[in-house]
Amino acid sequence: MKLADTLIGRVAALDSVVVAFSGGVDSSVVAALAHLALGDKALAVTAVSPSVAQGELEGARRVATHIGIRHETIATDELARDGYRANGRDRCYFCKTELYDRLAALARHRGYHALLSGANQDDQGDWRPGLKAAAEHGVVHPLHDVDKPTVRQLARHFALPSAEKPATPCLASRIPYGTAVDPAALRQIDEAERAVRALGFDVLRVRHHGILGRLEVSQAELPKAIEFQDEIVARLKQAGYAHAVIDREPFRSGRLNEAPARPAASR
Description:
α2 (25-38) packs across α7, α5 packs parallel to α6 (130-136) and α8 packs antiparallel against α10. The protein is built from eleven helices and seven strands. 43% of the residues lie in helices and 13% in strands. The protein has a four-stranded parallel sheet, sandwiched between helices. β5 (204-209) and β6 (212-217) form a beta hairpin. The N and C termini lie far apart (50 Å). By secondary structure, the protein is of the alpha/beta class. Residues 259-267 have low confidence and may be disordered. It has two domains: 2-157, HUPs (Rossmann fold); 171-258, Alpha-Beta Plaits.
């Protein structure tokens, strides 16, 4: 694949790299490129924190093993940052600043020349304050001119286990802007989403509105969610929500950046 060769050459010019590696499709492609370009001079690093859903680390490890890239974890503490807990529209800036501070320190200590992220062309069109943090840390985005469908094509080309993996952003993204982020809310969101995912749903978000949990699923899975409404509502309540609804408007990435989140009547 010509594009893959071009991107491998792009990464090879960096000499040695640390990849911010979540195990999602974007960072997985970057990790594969880095390993092919630089071998042992590439290191994938996964951040572990309360804002990461359970199971994500295990998934990242599986992908790293498949690629063959060296893989490590670091602990991040974005909840110690006032700007992250306050949950303004710039929340991701503080989260990514925490991540890149830790990765930059690791890279300096270990002698790596560059930090890489999986940000792609599609990320330029949405509200992404995390890109500001990346720019402040000199992070390189090898996929900056590659759109998301092509990123997935690259993932299939490399036979990555994450090729079809839905995006799984920070759990705090389920909390409306202006509502403070706390560990208990993150745990509740994670428990609720795992409970619904266990019913066979792939693309979903549980939006956290205090005592109300509002489930969004993909357009394709919305009829199934309505069919299993009673079971879903029961599982959301078991996770600690006093009230639970299924949004009749399907999940769409970036939706909360367009307007304040609001509950939608279901039951």
